[in-house]
Amino acid sequence: MAQRVTIRKRTPYNTTSNRRRIVKTPGGKLVYHHLKKPGTAPKCGDCGIALPGIPALRPRKYATVSKRIKTVRRAYGGSRCGDCVKSRIMRAFLVEEAKIVKKFIKQQQKPGGRK
Asked: If 0-12 CB within 10 Å is exposed, 13-18 middle and 19+ buried, where does residue 51 land?
């Protein structure tokens, strides 16, 4: 007959927050080890992929780790992925270029403008 294992927490229900694993101790007894929930990685705000370079931790664990672990050293470091940052920079540059071109065309069409 199999050895009985007692639950160490008060909640007996099989929920995601109450996952456990049977482990044999060096003394030969079987005990439950309660497992923590796996963390999810922070996602990019634009495209939704997991941010590379930032570990997947539980929310309260981010409060205890240092800032260099929570971000990457780039503009929008802990918030957007590199591809989205690149596209934002390109978009901003092209918008500024379009403004300059529009201003130049408007100046050309003036009667007293350059020829």
From this structure: buried
Size (the chain), residues: 115
18 within 8 A of 9, measured Cβ to Cβ: yes
What pTM does this model have?
0.70
DSSP line for the chain: -PPP---SSS--S--GGG-EEEEE-TTS-EEEEEPPPPPB--B-TTT-PBPTTS--B-TTHHHHS-HHHH--SSTTTTTS-HHHHHHHHHHHHHHHHHHHHHHHHHHHHSTTS--
pLDDT per position as a tens digit, 1-24: 789 999 999 999 999 999 999 999
